User: Which sequence fits this backbone?
């Protein structure tokens, strides 16, 4: 299966992972894009730039905030200095917040982007009769 973002494109856009780490991250990011777009990008002749930007976002967030990254560098939820106290938020709450923010960012990037047949990449339903759609109304 073809990559949605090549290593060369990734590097040109400022990516810092080595190639082997990138290849794994690209597979994970592509799977997320496919899940959100019902696999529509797979059938496209060319991958839109917005999809590539979303791939960059997923790879960056996954590398910074993934469960494995958090295990090695947890983020402090609170810290006090007078009497020293330090606490860390739960991984689940951080993960949920990050997932919500990442999904919103991807939706923003892909909003209005269509596949080769004119179907919005994020379309997840069946239009009803008389619904405004690309090219007019659904008969």
Assistant:
């Amino acid at each position: 299966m073809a990559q949605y973002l090549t290593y060369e494109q990734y590097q040109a856009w400022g990516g810092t992972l080595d190639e082997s780490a990138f290849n794994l991250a690209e597979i994970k990011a592509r799977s997320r894009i496919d899940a959100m777009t019902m696999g529509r990008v797979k059938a496209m002749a060319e991958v839109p730039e917005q999809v590539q930007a979303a791939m960059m976002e997923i790879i960056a967030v996954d590398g910074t905030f993934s469960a494995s990254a958090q295990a090695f560098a947890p983020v402090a939820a609170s810290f006090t200095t007078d009497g020293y106290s330090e606490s860390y938020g739960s991984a689940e709450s951080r993960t949920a917040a990050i997932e919500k923010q990442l999904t919103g960012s991807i939706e923003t990037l892909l909003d209005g982007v269509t596949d080769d047949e004119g179907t919005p990449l994020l379309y997840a339903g069946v239009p009803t009769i008389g619904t405004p759609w690309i090219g007019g109304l659904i008969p």
Remarks:
- Residues 7-137 form one domain.
- The two ends are 36 Å apart (CA to CA).
- The chain has a mean pLDDT of 81.
